Amino acid sequence: EPNFRLYWSYNEIENFLQRLANEYPDLVKKDVIGQSIEHRNIHGVRVSRNAEFGKNPIIFIDAGTHAREWAGIHSALYFLHQLVENSTVTNELLDKVDYVFVPVVNPDGYAYSFTEDRLWRKNRRYVNYTCQGIDLNRNYAYMWRYRENSCAGTGYPGAYALSEPETQAMAAYMQSFKYNFKLYLSTHTYGSLVLWPFGFEFIYVKNHKEHHLMGEKFRDAIYEATGTLYRVGNSADILYTANGASDDFALAYANANFAYTLELPGGGSAGFDYPQSMIYDLVRETFIGYRQFGLHIKERF
Ligand code: 0X9
Ligand code: ZN
User: Among 147, 188, 251, which residue has the most ligand 1 atoms within 8 Å of its CB, making it the best to mutate?
Assistant: First the structure.
């Protein structure tokens, strides 16, 4: 039984994913979608009851784009665990929907935040002697925007769109599901926000009303279960504009019908360093929300 009261090292996460693939070969397929700057494997996991993956509407869930956002990674892992290892959950969620997970988009950053700097956010690209790290959520190709001389801890987009192996792997993997890509959920922290596109500018996606309604269903399900109250809205309106993020990419370049960035609740001294003592409650709470999305997509398509 995996222990969701603890934060897992990258190695432990890899072992967990491999075990699921080994123990449930009919349900779980593990892909190595690419390698990070420091040559760690980036893992994708496909979950389907169908021999032919993607016959059902596809929900794609990622986390760990930002290294320090451990609570998001563990929430995605817990949802995956529940889908695969808790058959009472599997039944309603897997009969008409297929799932893809990339639980740790940025493994180098995650490992670095584990051992060196708890609040590290970016990947581990060596840029020059004063600068290390690209903000992967500014490096995607849709509306990527150049920024000169910026090596800030947050927001450095890199030299060009998809310059990083991590975003290249993600972009190709997302696009491989174009034919039936219904919902993209990018799990981040923090702020208790459900953000819908676009985020690069104050422009609403065509089906923004439906985005908003689906977001409210996530919000209401969690509020009823635990009393945690999320805010739902357009990324640019309720947070800020940011170019080159994964949610806009999923929608514009990977043919997803719906795309959200979920900012889970904050905790700890910096918001991003959610305390381990609270993580088990949080992953179970987030599960309620992911489940709601699964049920919605199942009815919708
Ligand atoms: O800034 C980000 O990348 C996300 N917030 S975080 O605090 N986790 O770093 C928000 C991204 C929202 N999406 C877009 N602006 N497209
Ligand atoms: Zn983030």
Answer: 188
Instruction: Give the residue whose CA is nearest to atom 14 of ligand 1.
Output: 199
Give residue 219 CA to ligand 1 midpoint distance, Å: 18
Q: Is 38 a catalytic residue?
A: no
3-state secondary structure (DSSP) of residue 120: coil
Tens of pLDDT along the chain (301 residues)? Answer: 899 999 999 999 999 999 999 999 999 999 999 999 999 999 999 999 999 999 999 999 999 999 999 999 999 999 999 999 998 998 999 999 999 999 999 999 999 999 999 999 999 999 999 899 999 999 999 999 999 877 888 899 999 999 999 999 999 999 999 999 999 999 999 999 999 999 999 999 999 999 999 999 999 999 999 999 999 999 999 999 999 999 999 999 999 999 999 999 999 999 999 999 999 999 999 999 999 999 999 999 9
- Structural tokens at position 267: 């905790």
Pick the ligand that lies closest to the CA of residue 65: 2
CB atoms within 10 A of CB 284: 15
The ipTM estimated for the assembled molecules is 0.99
Give distance in angstroms: CA of 10 to centre of ligand 1: 23
Q: Whose CA is nearest to atom 1 of ligand 1?
A: 242
Distance from the Cα of residue 257 to its chain's centroid: 16
Q: Which residues line ligand 1 (CB under 6 A)?
A: 66, 137, 188, 195, 199, 235, 239, 242, 245, 247-248, 261, 263
SS3 of residue 142 by DSSP: coil
Report the distance separating Cα 220 and Cα 201, nearest Å.
27
Please, is 293 exposed, middle or buried when counting C-beta atoms within 10 Å of its C-beta (0-12, 13-18, 19+)? buried
